[in-house]
Amino acid sequence: MFLIRGNLQSQLSHAVHLMAKRDFPERWPSLVPALAEQLKVDDLGRLVASLLAMDQLFKKFRYESKSTALWTELKSCLLTVREPLTRVYAKMLEFIPQRSTMSAESVVQWLEILCLVSKVFHSLCFQDLPEYFEDNIKPWMDGYLEIMKMDCPSVSSSGGEPTYLDELKMGVCEIFTLYAQRFEEEISPFMQNIIQAVWQLVVQTNSETRCAYMYNAEGEFTNPYCRLSYAPKPDPLVPEITNFKNYLARAVLQRGPAANSAVEACIPAELRTHLMAYA
C-alpha cells in the first residue's frame, strides 16, 4: 500500500478500512502502530498512504455514540498517533514560506497531506478534547490561522470541484466550529483571530460553484458561535457573496451581541466597520 500511488492507493486504504471494520482492533492490534511508524518517514507518498488509512479508520469516532469500547479504542489510537501526527503537522507548516518556490505537483501533494492530517486530528478530537491536544492547542491553532491566510496560485480547480486548498480551509473551519461549540474555554484565547480569519476568507471567496461548500463551512462556524439557532443560514446552492455578507452582518454584528455579550467583545473594530456596510 505504501509503495502505490494515485487512485489505487486510495482504494487500498479504503480496503484496509473495510477489512478492519469487523476485526479492528481485536485482530489488528498492530495496524495503527504500523501506520504511525510511517508518519516518521520523509517519503510523502508513504505519509499520504498512512494518513488515508488513518482517516478511514478514525472516521467512526465522529459518528458512533460514546461507549466504553469506543473510548478504549480511541484512547489506544490517541496514545499511538498523537505525537507523530503533531510532528508531521509542524513539519508541513514549515513549507508555508516555501510554497511559492515549490512545483505545482509538490504543492498539491503537500496540501493533500495537510488535509489528511486535519481530518485525522478532527476525528481524534470529536468525542472529547484529548489532554495532549489541549496542552498543544497553541501550535495547532496558530498553524490553522496561518493556513486560513494562505494562498496557492499554482493550484487550480478542475471542473468546478474544490481544490485541496479549498478542502483544507473547509476542514479548518469545521475544526474551529467543533472547538467553538464543544471546547469554548480552551479556544477562547484564539477566538478574535479566528473570527478575523473566517471573515477574510469570506471576503476573498469568489462566487464559483465550488465555493458553495466553503460558504457552508464558514456559516457553520459563525452560527453556533453566536448562539443563533434562529438566524437564516446561507443556501450552499446559491453562493452569492453579497447575500452571505448580509447574513454575517445580521448574525455576528446585530444578533450575536444580543445573544452573547462575549461575541461583541471579540469583534475587532475593522471587522465591525466591514460588517456595518452590509447591515
Automatic annotation (TrEMBL):
PANTHER family: EXPORTIN-2, IMPORTIN-7, 8, 11. Residues 57-211 form the Exportin-2 central domain. InterPro entries: ARM-like, ARM-type_fold, XPO2_central. GO terms for biological process: protein export from nucleus; protein import into nucleus. One of its GO terms (cellular component) is cytosol. It comes from Cylicocyclus nassatus (Nematode worm). One of its GO terms (molecular function) is nuclear export signal receptor activity. This is Exportin-2 central domain-containing protein.
